[in-house]
Amino acid sequence: MRIAITGTPGTGKSTVGKILSERLGIPVYDLSKLIKEKGFFTEFDEKRDAYVVDTEKLREFFRDKESYIAEGLVAHYVPADLIVILRAKPEVVVERLRPRGYSEEKLKENAEAEKLAVIATEVFESSPDSRVAHIDTTNRTPQEVAEIVERALKGEEVFDEVDWLEDETGSY
Ligand SMILES: Nc1ncnc2c1ncn2[C@@H]1O[C@H](COP(=O)(O)OP(=O)(O)OP(=O)(O)O)[C@@H](O)[C@H]1O
Ligand SMILES: [Mg+2]
Question: Strand, helix or coil at 65?
Answer without folding.
Answer: coil
